[in-house]
């Protein structure tokens, strides 16, 4: 996936300069320029800021899998995928591209040391996370919770939140947002 090109195309479609995008997103012009040239990979928090500033969901940056599309079923080998090298995470959408749903189900693969970024995320909606394998630490405001395999959490997304993989290896999660933010 050429994330930088997609970001540039979306920015230019909206007739925004890098300065405009920086002002709205809160990211620096130099950082955005490096992202557009694929010199750096944004963290999850930066990606969210950029997508919100462009008025799109994060899945707008995903590669669309080839093959027959269904409005209900997503085959494992046809998942739309986004990789954040900076955050050390791979997102796989479990929702058909273009499906009209209030849910955004995602399969997260967190490398050792993966994290959502140093900034807290804050947005409208609710989130559900279920640990399939490994361990994840979720911080809501100033309260930190450790979730192990089989544990789950549900919380309001307007509470400042962030996460990180605290497992000594790869952690996999089922994560559902409503409304869709990805």
TrEMBL record:
Any one cellular-component term (Gene Ontology): cytosol
Residues in HTH cro/C1-type domain copies: 7-61
InterPro entries to which the protein is assigned, alphabetical: Cro/C1-type_HTH, Cupin_2, Lambda_DNA-bd_dom_sf, RmlC-like_jellyroll, RmlC_Cupin_sf, TransReg_Diox_bact_type
Entry keyword Cell wall biogenesis/degradation: no
A single MF term (Gene Ontology): DNA binding
Keyword annotations from UniProtKB, A to Z: DNA-binding
Domain of life from the UniProt record: Bacteria
Keyword Transmembrane helix attributed: no
Entries under SMART domains matching the protein: HTH_XRE
Coiled-coil residue spans: none
PANTHER family hit by this protein: HTH-TYPE TRANSCRIPTIONAL REGULATOR, METHYLPHOSPHONATE SYNTHASE
Name the record gives this protein: XRE family transcriptional regulator
Organism from which the protein derives: Seleniivibrio woodruffii
